[in-house]
Amino acid sequence: MSVDKAKPAVKAPEPVNVKEMLQNRGPMVADELAQFRRAIAADQVMQTRIEIDALLREVEAGETQSGAIVRAGVGAYLLAQHAIANRILSGVTGDAVGSYVHGLTLLALDKPAEAAEKFAAAAKAGFDSVEATLKRAGAIRLQGRVDEAEQVVRSTGTEGARRAEYSYQMGCILADRGDTYGAIEYFERAVDMDPHHAQALFRLAGENALYGNDSEAIRLYEQSLSKAPYHLGALLNLGLLYEDRGNYPAAAFCFRRILSFDPEHARARMYMKDIEATSDMFYDDDVARNEARLEQLLSRPVTDFELSVRSRNCLASMNIMTLGDLTRTTENDLLQGKNFGETSLVEIRELMAQHGLTVGQNLQAVAKPAHAPGLPVGLPLELSPQEQQLLSSAVSDLQLSVRARKCMARLQIASLGELIQRSPDDLLSTKNFGVTSLNEIRQQLAERGLKLRND
Fold this sequence. Notes:
Elements: H1 18-23, H2 31-41, H3 45-60, H4 66-78, H5 82-89, H6 96-108, H7 112-124, H8 129-141, H9 146-154, H10 157-161, H11 164-176, H12 180-193, H13 198-210, H14 214-224, H15 232-244, H16 248-261, H17 266-278, H18 285-298, H19 309-317, H20 323-327, H21 331-335, H22 342-354, H23 385-392, H24 402-410, H25 416-419, H26 424-428, H27 435-446
């Protein structure tokens, strides 16, 4: 007779004593970063903030040593208090951990040139040179020097290629070059290497949200928030996705979590007010999701798909930019285009069929002016070619938040021409659309010399 042997219990990590860590006046070592993260992940946010505030008072009074100053700066960074962390760490020199975290802080403050210098200084001071080099490559890329960034990434050799950060940085480089699918492959590889790589998870979640894969986006955002430092953008987007699904308690938790790190976060405060105003309303989420997926599909540029050069050029000459434009034109209109023949028409038919669409299926919905393909009805006919191109461009080209994009999908607004025919009241009447989203759209339109109806 066999006897089952009891499996040894997995020893849980020792609880972190935040106060003890912050009272240590010696140089900070890299392992302590992980301890700080564990403390915050264990919901010691308030305790950590109290201890850091006490240490900050010592730092500002000049009554402490450099090791404690670094700890105060690291703690402020992990609590997303980037301006405070920058102020503290600016006075630290020659410290490996301090320089590295200062570089991360400067990236969060959108100062990549200064961040690159700090990562170089961190490697020189003894921080993990491969990790610091990969982060420096990211800072170089953010300055627009993509080719140089790739050279720096590849300079880390075999050791670098074994790390998740290497794949993440290569994914960002490909994304900047417009290779979305190649970028996603690298981001997925980074997550395979490190299931908690917050930035790679954030990028993957964003891609899924963009194409209406909300369930997968939520899963990835949740995974990215499994350890500190918490990406406030991930918390914000996750809260909006929860809100779209009518899960208001979960959405409120995300926004409150942001406010626990940054009590003055304007968008989190505004979204909390939106939840309070709409949480008792009923919506058909299934219908909304289906509409959102269809709208995302119709707004995809034809350049996203494999077409012959002739077909691409013909569509561009007819100002047909998206799949939605193809649903609002006829096969006869296409054949009248210069150099557009039966072969190109068959190619377009096959493309549309692959996505459950047909050429001309939405002709009933929008009667287009004959001289301005892609423009919605109701706009002036006396438009220049440049104005026609601007107004027929997809709303997905705007740099909008997840919430604003979802609202555009619900209202079935695919182009800027359709958007500017809506009034602020039209937009505010849709689900989860508040003043913050309205101002966001107004700003984006103003940058293009446009405005909403009645504005």
